[in-house]
Amino acid sequence: MAELGGEPQKSGPALSAPVPLTAEHDLSAFAAVSQSIGAVMVHAKDDAARRFYLRCAEFIEYPQDSRTLFLPIETVMAAFDGEFG
Predict the structure, then answer these.
(1) Cross-strand bridge partners of residue 70
(2) Which tens digits make up the pLDDT trace of 2-37?
(3) Would you list the domain boundaries of the chain?
(4) 62: CB partners within 8 A, 6+ apart
(5) Which of 8, 16, 53, 84 could anchor a disulfide with 20, C-beta 3.0 to 4.6 Å?
(6) Model confidence at 62, in pLDDT bands (50, 70, 90)?
């Protein structure tokens, strides 16, 4: 799982720890870890944000009718179509 924005993780490295992605990271850093990422998870702050994410990409709501959304990493990588060689 990746986190977009927010504070970097304070704990030591672990296989299941979230990978923090902030404005300082570039897409090549994302590509470097993407092989170990299964999906991007978003928790929308409200229903308007939820609708925005669902309009912009092929997010999966889980559980159904919640504000927790998942985007399979294959979908993310396909959007960049070979950018990461």
Answers:
(1) 41, 60
(2) 444 444 445 444 445 555 555 445 666 666 665 677
(3) 38-85
(4) 68, 69, 70
(5) 8
(6) very high
